[in-house]
Design a protein that fits this description.
127 residues; mainly alpha
């Protein structure tokens, strides 16, 4: 999914800075996914030669590290998906609209949480 450019969207009340934030966050999230995939592959490769890591007194086990990196990778992949959805909402002109109540999300909330789909009021309510 490509980032959103200045000429390709209707901004309405949004600023280019808000759009730039979504694009920058998406790039950063994709880099994190790539880094974590490399780290997970390196862990898997290290277990080919020495599969027993339970007796390593120097630190955490390979199993623990593999689980930690896999969890971080899953979290980063969700972040990429959320940011790609935000890019689509920017293109559709609905980026600042709350998906629950239809109200305005607010530029300050979007600057802090660029992938958010709901306004502060709806976020504080129980689902």
């Amino acid at each position: 999914m490509a980032a959103v450019g200045r000429a390709s969207l209707y901004l309405g009340r949004m600023t280019y800075a808000a759009v730039a934030r979504v694009n920058a966050d998406l790039v950063h999230a994709r880099v994190s996914v790539a880094d974590l995939r490399r780290e997970l592959a390196a862990i898997a490769e290290s277990t080919v030669l020495v599969p027993d890591d339970e007796h390593d007194a120097e630190g955490s086990t390979i199993g623990f590290e593999r689980a930690r990196v896999a969890a971080l990778l899953a979290q980063s992949q969700r972040r990429v998906a959320d940011l790609e959805a935000a890019v689509e909402r920017v293109r559709a002109g609905t980026y600042q609209s709350c998906e629950r109540c239809g109200g305005d999300i607010g530029i300050l909330r979007l600057e802090a949480l660029s992938a958010t789909r709901v306004c502060r009021c709806c976020a504080s309510r129980c689902p």
